[in-house]
Write a structure and sequence with these properties.
The structure is a homodimer. In chain A, helix 5 packs across helix 7, helix 5 (76-101) runs parallel beside helix 8 and helix 6 (106-123) crosses helix 7 (125-131). The first copy, chain A, is elongated, with a radius of gyration of 20 Å. Chain A is mainly alpha-helical. Chain A has 2 domains: 5-71, no CATH class; 76-214, Tetracycline Repressor, domain 2. The longest helix of chain A has 26 residues, at 76-101. The termini of chain A are far apart. Chain A has helices at residues 3-9, 16-20, 33-48, 55-62, 76-101, 106-123, 125-131, 142-150, 152-163, 172-191, 197-214. Chains A and B meet through helix 7, helix 8, helix 10 and helix 11 of A and helix 7, helix 8, helix 10 and helix 11 of B. Chain A binds a DNA duplex through residues 11, 28-31, 33, 54-57, 64-68, 70-72, 75-76.
DNA sequence: ACCTGAACACCGTTCAAGT
DNA sequence: ACCTGAACACCGTTCAAGT
């Protein structure tokens, strides 16, 4: 086998030995430091919030020197950006899973997807905050792409609703953005403490009902 | 006059001399440091973002030693909380102003208020982020109160819509939260860079249209 | 290619001391 | 009552040196 070429070409994100699990846990010095840092960062943000995250702490917890992370993230902001991006990937996966497990009924799919979104907001409030924080975002920001990819099950759902005559015609992305905003706003009201868990369920239900009614075809 | 008693009772937020403007600009050492810090913090957050805000910098810019802010804000978080609260006060004032200047038509008032909200989001994106950031918020958090107070013109608007038969019956706060979430979500999609300025107007318009349709009485 | 460890400038927080 | 300034522990970033 000529796995040499492959390893050199894409050596950052873990090598074959790691994937097969043949490398001991202390082999951070080769291959998977980037992933380990992100994983630990995510856990820390969940437990301590964004302010509890320090590069030096991270390096300590993962067992490397404080200068090591620099090889994988140019600075703290680069790590936060990567963390946000991986957050969108996870959110997208959970939305897609909820979408698929919900059967084929439009309303059921919509409610299941929204519930998955809000579950993410509840479990990883600080991460969701980071994902929607206002940094200098260019138009072709990878985060923009990741966010739209994550929400793509919702856009697909809009398309289904249109095919079935439940939703009005029009650009599915334009209509989907209204749904996106509504769900994200609901999540934000909860993570920021404006509403309690008890009100969240009611608000989420209302938001979806209003959206569906609002997007009804005008007959 | 016995203004001694009054001054002692409420000496933090500037004294009579300040209000009348009889105190020179270098009199920070007496009375208005807290307000000066908040004002400078708001400007810095607007120009540099939240990460550009440092207590020591603030103290420097205001012309006071780095230990001085502690007299008015126990720690950095306390200053951020106060900043968020003052942000809600400003947002509330701007919503109320837009509400009043919009005449008496329900739709006009609704669009004007939403536009004012989004104007705030555009001008002070980082501040809005801070206002909705996920810290440890109790149920009786002053921020919760400030947010609801800020949005109260919207709740009043819901009430008007119900009186005029444009909106369905029900708890105005419950219905208003759907509108709140929708507008805040729209703002978040913009401040986080998910949509561009060009799309913002379209999304805002759609969000309001869908809300009004969604909250229509079911005849 | 990846990691270490010293060095630097900066920060938040505390606290005795000043007025 | 309010502010100063030294002190402390910690942080992000840089960079020569190691393997």
């Amino acid at each position: 086998m000529d796995n040499n070429v492959d390893a050199d070409h894409n050596a950052v994100n873990g090598n074959i030995l790691d994937r097969v699990g043949l490398v001991s846990e202390k082999s951070y010095h080769h291959g998977n430091l980037r992933a380990a840092l992100l994983e630990q960062a995510k856990a820390t943000v969940r437990e301590q919030g964004l302010d509890g995250l320090s590069l030096r702490d991270l390096a300590r917890q993962v067992g490397v020197s404080h200068g090591a992370p620099r090889r994988h993230f140019q600075d703290r902001q680069a790590l936060l950006d990567a963390l946000a991006e991986s957050g969108f990937e996870q959110l997208g996966a959970e939305l897609a899973a909820a979408f698929e497990q919900a059967g084929s009924d439009f309303g059921t799919r919509l409610r299941a997807s929204a519930a998955a979104y809000l579950r993410f907001a509840i479990n990883d409030a600080a991460l969701l905050d980071l994902m929607f924080s206002s940094k200098g975002h260019d138009a072709d920001d990878p985060l923009h792409t990741a966010a739209m990819a994550a929400f793509s099950p919702m856009f697909e759902l809009i398309h289904q609703g249109q095919r079935e005559g439940i939703l009005e015609a029009g650009d599915p992305e334009r209509i989907g953005l209204v749904l996106f905003a509504s769900i994200q706003g609901t999540a934000a009201l909860f993570t920021s403490g404006m509403i309690e868990s008890a009100q969240l369920e009611q608000l989420a239900s209302d938001a979806i009902t209003y959206f569906v009614r609002g997007a009804l075809p005008i007959p």
